[in-house]
Amino acid sequence: MPTLPPCPLCAMENTYADADRIICADCAHEWSATDTVPADENETSVVKDANGNVLANGDSVVLIKDLKVKGSSITLKVGTKVKSIRLVGGDHEVDCKMDAGSFMLKACYLKKA
Predict the structure, then answer these.
(1) Confidence (pLDDT) at 2
(2) Residues 21-56: pLDDT tens digits?
(3) Which CATH number fits domain 1-43: 3.40.30.120, 2.60.120.40, 3.40.50.2300, 2.20.25.10?
């Protein structure tokens, strides 16, 4: 007997098959047995910088504002160039490494270099 996949919404494994659909008994979410990605993840979000330019993985950006790092005495200075950014989901869309360490930044404080 093949194992059914867990629910893509709540990640619970209490799922059952009903004809060509799979149903989660915990949250009542239904999806097709051929679907592997939930509908919410099919849409790719576009990350834009402060000027409206679309950012991509590997781009170089420049800080447009001094940013104080929470829980530290470090301040990231305006004009600092950051190379090879990585886009991630969530509130802070850009993951990067600088001399001061690794940071997650909001795209609204960056401009494409």
Answers:
(1) 64
(2) 888 888 888 888 776 544 444 445 789 999 999 999
(3) 2.20.25.10
Chain position carrying tokens 């950012």: 55
What integer pLDDT is reported at residue 42 of this predicted model? Answer: 43
Of 59, 58, 67, 60, nearest to 106 by C-alpha is: 67
Q: Which residues are registered as beta bridge partners of 12?
A: none
- CATH number, span 61-112: 2.30.30.40
Task: Give residue for tokens 């530290």.
Answer: 72
Q: How many CB atoms lie within 10 A of CB 47?
A: 20
Give burial (CB, 10 Å; 0-12/13-18/19+) of 58.
exposed
What is the C-alpha R_g of the chain?
Answer: 20
